[in-house]
Amino acid sequence: MKVVIIGCTHAGTSVARQILKTHPDTEVAIYERNNNISFLSCGISLYLGGTVKSLAEMFYATPADLEKLGAQIHTQHDVYRIDVAQKQIWVEDLNNNRKFVTQYDKLVLTTGSVAVIPPIQGVSLPNVLICKDYADATQIAATAQTKKHIAIVGGGYIGVELAESYSNTEHEVTMINGLHPLLSHYVDTDFSTAVAADLTAHGVNLKLNETALKFDSDAQHVYIQTDRAEHQADLAVVCVGFRPQTDLAVGQLQLNADGSLHVDRYMRTSDPDVYAAGDAVAVHFNPTQEDAYAPLATNAVRQGLLVGMNIFKPTLADIGTQATSALHLYGKTLASTGLTLARAKQHGFDAAVAKLTDNYRPEFMPTTTPIDMRLIYERKTHRILGGQLYSAYDVAQSANLLSVCIQNKNTIEQLAFVDMLFSPYYDRPFNYLNQLGLTALEQEATAKP
Ligand SMILES: Cc1cc2nc3c(=O)[nH]c(=O)nc-3n(C[C@H](O)[C@H](O)[C@H](O)COP(=O)(O)OP(=O)(O)OC[C@H]3O[C@@H](n4cnc5c(N)ncnc54)[C@H](O)[C@@H]3O)c2cc1C
């Protein structure tokens, strides 16, 4: 059996490792356009902020590692066409521009995503960068040495993480964010406002409700024209989201309206011999029970593993995702899972939010820390749809617990009374998540139907 994998970051690496672990006799040929594999993009802001000392630490596999497992790995090879009927792919070796065609028995598309580049005049100027892969990371790291005033366009989690790292390293930062509140995909407005306050407190100059329309530049500066004003900086980084990189599949495989590949629970595309995983595909989003686009490394590695497990025969079905995520902001953790209240309402749920701020452990302990919590639930069924936590206490694993609750269709009653440990070192007799469930219960008991 010859398996061809196109793209080798997280999903592609995960597929190759799993296949070669369980079926080492398989011929696995990997084609990757870049000269590296497995770069962790989360390392960009960690390096910029000084938490990790070298970008080289952000690779967890090398081509040689996969070769040792038995893969043929072709970096700097671009696949520019596929034909699923003929089971062929067309490849260009970017080292010498040699083009060739090769056959497969099974094809895996792990082509990932590309940064959305808005159709704005001047967006391709040299001092306007994007933030996605290792090449972008090296440019961001190099320019940080000389460029002192940075404009970040886009207030999603990548923009916010970059703003933190630049502002912690003696850069002047202007963040321009139009249309939606900061991090609106992950949190509701009050947490968005709290994040804005923390950014402002650390010197980030926020320009909210402003849409970038045009970039101009001279040797020193970049000028960003928005619908309200013109801003000047030394460098702009555009972080307005990602879209699936699925051009190869157009006319060959079923695509969703947003361009992501449609896959079933066994990661099969519409062609029985073509599988896909990672940012190129839609995920099954459990809170809505619908497909959604949620480009996260977590989804990519899980789906890659599933491709490796299912490619020989359907073995294990995907259980879907809550798109749980967290970011670290000036010593605080912001963690979220599932739907925000706004998105729940957009999806037609009669949803409500329970809000609680409570110390994580008793006040008689030498220290304690408050946690701001939000629980989104469906009023009719009391099913939990989402959760958000923001605190100087590490609440990341609590978002994971709420993720499990959503996965298992738990209710606010079950969260209120689920068994959790008590020790004053860690929490109160009712853990703070039990308390959040109880708050939702009390709210429903007194709410009008
Ligand atoms: C700055 C940043 C921070 C992030 N932080 C987090 C985080 O903290 N947690 C988290 O869960 N997620 C995070 N993510 C998201 C995560 O990086 C992505 O979800 C993940 O990279 C997806 O992996 P993938 O393998 O599906 O696709 P990609 O990483 O997009 O890789 C696809 C690969 O396919 C190659 N390729 C595509 N087309 C072809 C072709 N035709 N021929 C040859 N090669 C091709 C590309 O060169 C690329 O290397 C972050 C992303 C960014 C940009």
Fold and architecture overview:
By secondary structure, this protein is α/β, with parallel strands linked by helices. The protein has three domains: 2-33 and 53-114 and 244-310, FAD/NAD(P)-binding domain (3-Layer(bba) Sandwich); 117-238, FAD/NAD(P)-binding domain (3-Layer(bba) Sandwich), CATH 3.50.50.60; 325-446, Enolase-like, domain 1 (2-Layer Sandwich), CATH 3.30.390.30. The protein has eleven helices and 25 strands. The strands form seven sheets. The chain has a five-stranded parallel beta sheet with strand order 3-2-1-7-18, covered by helices on one side. Strand 10, helix 5 (157-167) and strand 11 form a beta-alpha-beta unit. The longest helix has 15 residues, at 432-446.
- List segments where confidence is low: pLDDT < 50 over at least 5 consecutive residues: none
Please report the distance between the alpha carbons of the first and last residues: 60 Å
What's the Cα radius of gyration? 23 Å
In which order are the strands of the major sheet placed? Answer: 3-2-1-7-18
Query: Kindly state the mean pLDDT as a whole number?
Result: 97
